[in-house]
């Protein structure tokens, strides 16, 4: 295989081929090339395999390449001489450029090549112009083609643009026209567009899973190639409700077709609508550049008849009276009603199916259509007291599904007498606060009071009715045994509650809604017996007791008083002293009955006692209080005396704090010191008094306006607590400290214009100061048009005001007090001037005519308008005459509204007279007339003239027979609202067997009635008018069909077998036929047949249908069988047909369905419990670098949920390259991975080993029937720098081994690295003499760490290891964690001791080292020499090979006849010769192409170019694009301006045609021309 790129010189110019004689000479020399085949082959190996990267940097011509004249012309660009100006550099006759289409308004894209390959300088030597037809897409800048407008390949339908470049030589004015072909490449700039939106379908809920429900989704993409191919898929939409999201319910199995398939079963009762979000995406090569559009498919689920009816209640009750014909029974808890659970709402037929006693049919009848139960005969005997009747509700459908309920009817006696209530006693008692349920006992016999009820109407056979008792109190109730019990546990007899309760009670029959069966009331009296529920409360003394010192004997000092709310013995109190402080227990005594406390003996002044007294009642409840007793010195008989009892004094409100008010003096007759205190009147603490001096002074800021007088009670007391009181009356003297304050702000007044001296309002102010300080005078500026009375504040106008000049005045009024230093306040009055109207409003229209539809309420009719010439327009509208109850008018705007709907049929026209309150003159224009015409609407539905009566028919009645005629009338006023038509509505099967004449309403038979088993039909006939909206009413015609009895066959209809066994694969899809149940003896085609699953289908996995042979097919409803969950199903099927022809023995069949296991589960890899990092993603193993061959690295384990051979698993091992794979092997059964080679010479580039473990189940079966799982396996080699040791003292290795898992988890949690334990062994340590020894009582845990990011094993010196494991702090933390968690003594983490340290080696220089010091330099020199020589040889061989290959390619070209162009005339040529330009087309023979044309697409975008084999993608051109109108060539992609290295080329397959490009340049010094256009060549890879 050969692959070459064109060579480049140092300046990046591509070598182009020579023309004419030079080209022929090259061809001749090319024939001599085979003599160097060996060297060419060698060069190919070197170049193609990338052994020499710069395969050929520069190639010059050899002496044999010189032309015949002996000059040394080089291969390069043509020289710009007058003879070759305006010619093409590549020697061709036309130019081909490539350009990408525009995206939006983009015009900046460049052509490829960037410059036109025309010889000559466009600025100095030649002039270039473009000749374009129709749209002018391009303009020239020098030799560069630039877009002059956006170029849209899709919208303009352009694949290529052909125009001409006119080149004029400036020196000779000769011109040349050159054809230019611009090939436009497609960009993916258009999204697919859906057509025929919106998408809506309706499907039945019984649609099988896997059914294609919609094929109409279509989208178009105007892009070309794969950019225009559309795929469809369904996505999850977050905008829809979860229950309405169609994602997962529907699927698109074939993305290119867009057919929507049902993926799960539907259930109308669960959801009636789904919104399926469908995305249409194109198939651009780069997924990031793909464009898409979204649409919504609305799927409406239609209901099927799949649910049985259901009674609203499972049990009903009713009652009838003996000897009375009740008629329609009042059924409880609600009327008998069953409804179809399907939305089809099939009609329901009611019937009695059984009952007790058997005579129930003689007395009761149920309406089959309404479910109403009637009593048809009174019950006269005493034996039948209760009826139990079982009801059946059957839907009138083919399925005849039914439901059952129970009706209990109680036969009551005729209620002629009320019940009689009797009590064992009417007077009872109970303890207060008794628990709920405590019986009330009789005072007579202490037995519970019991009530009984009798009814004279009842006979011994009558059931005893239940009675409930109604009491007028909530404190008691009658329990189920008829005993009066407590109902409130908080019954209290203590005051203020009454000690006894009297109430009334009656007995009422349960279920008596009319409240007629109640007894006469009884009066009950219950006494509440006292219980000791209150403790005594000591009420006196409340203050401390003072006794004089001295004294002798026993003397009373105070009395203890207590109260107890109980009565009797519970209220008898005894007093006692329980404790006395200061050892005074024997110095005080209390009388236990009266509570008088006596002092015993002599007391000294200053003694203090705390006496704890206790009061205890007869029930043992008690309370205590502490009484303080103080002993004072001798008798103090006289209190201090004031000099006067009342003092009157004044103080200024401006007095400062501390200012003296008065000095009080009191003298004690006994000469004791006096203490002063303010005891009343000083609540605000505005004053204080010296306790010893009696000086009364100010203590707070005084304000006369807040409080003008104080009355203080001053107490003067001696040390014996004797005192006297004097009163000090203080008057606060006013100062002018308050400003006047206006009240009733703000002031807004109004006055009509032209009224001088008019009183318009009054201002008011107050001043809380006194006398002159509080007197106020008012002032207004003199220049104001208003005046104010200085005393009263009345404001008046001075002059006549003009509204038109000034409508609003703002006047400042001042309030001033009469103090010598007056204080003032101001306020602003807002005075509005009112306009005086002098012109009446008039209407400018005399009448209004309006039409309005009937029945519109609160609707605007029209607006009337009157004109008022006044400045302030005041118009108030009102209805003067007309129907006030139907219309009202807005008095401001004149809008007229309806107050109720108008009725065309009653009154088609209304007349209103509208006037204004301001003009009641009756003159012309004072009123206007509004004529309202009512438009008739379709507001009355047709009404049937009579209610249809039931009809009875034989099933043999002929088709077309008229069974009744219905008539309805419509009372609307106009046509077509009163035209009536008829139709039958869909309800059950009635529409199938009956029809109605649309015009006459005649109901006739439509089909043979013998085809159904139904005996009753309900025909819903709808009468509708022709109005819009359409109104209608429905009448139901009940038809009873009597079926002619037929003789049953000798052998009834039934299943051919009663039991089947079926095997089904667990992968079976929905709709799979499991078994056909053959039905025998089905003689008459009219006999209906249906099969029903009665058990075993709880999950709804199976369904039954009757096929065309009238046999039942059992099918799978959905793909959800799973052998691992349910291995077998047992389904019971019942045959449904006419009762008279069925074989009871063969009416049921049992099918056993065995689910056959399949290999539907993949093996699942098991991970070590301690591995938390990358769990489920990778497995990690490690092996020591010195391990022997066959050393176990790791054991792989996987489990498979399938059974049998599908559960068996084998293991395989793969690697990224064969070298890595050669180091390891895996046991296919056990999963043990072991090494096959020694690991001491592994290249670091291979580490870590990245292996892949494959687990395959079903190893004995074919590969196609196996499931595989793969998991990456990372294997590291453990070296000495990686090892770390955790030292555990005092624990042997075998015990530490048990806790290996816990140690691993601790190390991984603390380090966040992947930890592996290499071994657990006895502890190594160095002895005192430096030797290595073992301690079997301690343990070394050898471990290593792997970085979870790059999977490399880490040195213990790595920062991640030192920071988390090896540092002192980390080592201590790990040791503490291990010790505390595992109950061992871990001491440290350190590097392992592998051997005893060696003594240091002597330092010195060996003689041999000095002799070999120059050897490396000699090797480097020799290598350089070899490289230079070999490089020169290889370059020569590569050059010769390229020459040979170029000749070979030239011989393969086939010229296709050119496409002619219109002649181009050169105006500047003197001979006016005609030149014809042609296009050179390249094609490839059809038998050389091995590709599918439809899958080829050319893309010229370098970032995603599929022609420029960038090492990962190989692109192709279609045969049409190559052999069609023009070449489809493209220049090769480049690296930094040069050609791509040969090592970048990687073919995708051995038979894929590879696009190769060759460029030929003529080397010329100093030429910097751009790369020329090249031709593509296809070559097969053999």
UniProtKB/TrEMBL annotation:
InterPro entries membership: Cadherin, Cadherin-like_dom, Cadherin-like_sf, Cadherin_CS
Ranges annotated as spanning the membrane: 1412-1439
Compartments (UniProt record): Membrane
Highest taxon of source: Eukaryota
Region annotation (Disordered) ranges: 1-29, 1520-1582
Domain Cadherin: start-end pairs: 134-194, 195-311, 312-421, 422-538, 539-642, 643-742, 743-843, 844-944, 945-1051, 1056-1165, 1183-1295
SUPFAM superfamilies, alphabetized: Cadherin-like
PROSITE patterns in the record: CADHERIN_1 (PS00232), CADHERIN_2 (PS50268)
Keyword entries, A-Z: Calcium, Membrane, Repeat, Transmembrane, Transmembrane helix
Family annotation (Gene3D superfamilies): Cadherins (2.60.40.60)
Biased composition (Polar residues): 1-11, 1520-1536
Protein name (database record): Cadherin domain-containing protein
Organism, as annotated: Orchesella dallaii
Biological classification of the source: Eukaryota, Metazoa, Ecdysozoa, Arthropoda, Hexapoda
